[in-house]
Design brief:
By secondary structure, the chain is mainly α. The chain has two domains: 38-108; 112-166, no CATH class. Helices cover 57% and strands 11% of the residues. The chain has helices spanning 19-32, 40-108, 124-136; strands at 112-118, 154-161, 164-166. Strands 1-2-3 form a three-stranded mixed beta sheet, with no helix packed on it. Residues 1-74, 87-145 are annotated as: Disordered. Residues 87-110, 122-139 have a biased composition (Basic residues). Residues 20-31, 39-74 have a biased composition (Basic and acidic residues).
Amino acid sequence: MAVEGLRSPAPGSENTVGPECDRTSRLDSARLRPPPKFTPEKESERERREEKRREEKRREEKRREEKRREEKRRDELLERERDILWSRRRRRSQKNRQQRRNKQKEKRGPRVILVSASNLTHTRKEKKKEKKKEKKLCRGTRLSGGHRFSGRVELLLLTECRGKTES
């Protein structure tokens, strides 16, 4: 007991200055407070409350899960409806385009280009040439008069025999 300031104050002494005082007063108040009583009744009530809380959490989680599923279903249905509507619109627009084309074709009427081929049965070489011409008659084939054959053109093949024209 060489240094008196280092010793802790004795219980009941009135040291009212510094952190040591606060600590000791807290410890004293904790000692004076009676310990919490654990009776079986209180324990069972606490367990019931905890069980209720757990049950409520489970219900809440189920509700959230159900909401998620419902939103997912709704989104899928909306997506399907959107796809159906878009496909209908596409079909309708294609149909309208086709109808417009057909009307324009009807307005124009059949284009008739006269292709004259004279003396088809003259020689073998000309026959071969004529066969080749028949094979090549597809879109883009050059015809007489500077025209080109497109799929919608009606062809009249005129044959000239000894100055007479037969259609």
